[in-house]
Amino acid sequence: MDSEAAIRSNVRQAVPFFAVSDMEQSLHFYIDGLGFEMTNKWIDGGKLRWCWLQLGGAAIMLQEFNKQGPGSWIPEKAGIGVSIYFTCEDAIAIYREVKVRGLAAKTPFVGNKMWVTELADPDGYKLFFESSTSEPEETVFTE
Questions:
Q1: Nearest alpha carbon to residue 34 among 121, 110, 123
Q2: How many domains does the chain have?
Q3: Per-residue pLDDT averaged across 3-16, rounded?
């Protein structure tokens, strides 16, 4: 096997790593609001420092950034320029469910032959959920 094929067959998943300003607030958004499950975590000094969250076949990692002391870092705005797209079976079902759970999801629309709904997490990371459709481009979802 050549080295390019070895690398290609070795890579399994890309997992976004989000630096968050308030772990508790982020967990409420991702677990209670979106339905992610915490499958791994690092607790240091009795405090949750890092976690791996899973939703279906997708995963993200969260770590609260240090605001004081060695290694501290306070970004002007953590989520600027970061967008993650989750491909799913039914983006409209996700839109309806997260609205019931109190999250501010944008009304789905059709773009690139996909229903798309958008949310922003507490730090401004943009999350898009999309699913295939045969509806015309730019169609806006109505109940």
A1: 121
A2: 1
A3: 80
Answer for the pair 85, 126: CB distance below 8 angstroms, yes or no.
Answer: no
What is the spatial distance between Cα 18 and Cα 34, in angstroms, rounded to a whole number?
Answer: 16
Per-residue pLDDT tens over the stretch 99-116: 999 999 999 999 999 999
**Domain of 123: which CATH number?**
3.10.180.10
How many Cα atoms sit within 13 Å of 100 on the Cβ side?
7
| Amino acid sitting at position 101 | R
- Which residues contact residue 21 at a Cβ distance below 8 angstroms, ignoring those fewer than 6 apart? 64, 65, 67, 78, 122, 123
Within a domain: 8:
yes
Give me the residue label for tokens 């469910």.
Answer: 97
* 6 alpha carbon, distance to own chain's centre: 29
